[in-house]
Design goal:
It holds the Pfam family DUF485. The radius of gyration is 22 Å and the shape is elongated. It is mainly α and 120 residues long. The longest helix has 41 residues, at 60-100. The chain has one domain (5-114). It has helices spanning 5-9, 12-45, 47-52, 60-100, 105-114. It is built from five helices and no strands.
């Protein structure tokens, strides 16, 4: 008997992996969208204030642009950090579940290699 994709996708460990990945990407994607929307609204609604206000003798518009750059780096760091600490254990559990529930070793080997294989 061979394992079908629908059977594999119903494994609780894979359901949890997909949920965690979805939560992480949706949350960080929403933060990125809000960061960019704030940038656009600021420049569209307050162009004079951004050019005339000069904290530390640097126009506020440059501070806003820098915040976009720094915010992007923070989002990338958060994605890698939470991928390792939040999604990583779910990947390990999914790989273990695939290995434990195997019926066709060739198919499971292909599936685990697609998921990145076991982590050390």
């Amino acid at each position: 008997m061979t394992t079908t994709w629908s059977e594999v996708l119903r494994l609780p460990e894979l359901v949890e992996l997909r949920r965690r990945r979805r939560v992480l990407t949706a949350t960080l994607g929403a933060v990125a969208a809000l960061l960019f929307a704030g940038f656009l609204v600021g420049f569209a609604a307050f162009p004079e204030e951004l050019g005339e206000t000069r904290p530390f003798d640097v126009p506020l518009s440059l501070w806003i642009v820098f915040s976009q750059f720094a915010g992007t780096w923070v989002l990338v760091w958060a994605y890698f950090r939470f991928s390792r600490t939040y999604v990583g254990p779910a990947v390990d559990a999914a790989v273990d579940a695939l290995t434990d529930h195997r019926t066709d070793s060739t198919r499971i080997t292909a599936l685990t290699s697609e998921l990145g294989g076991p982590r050390s």
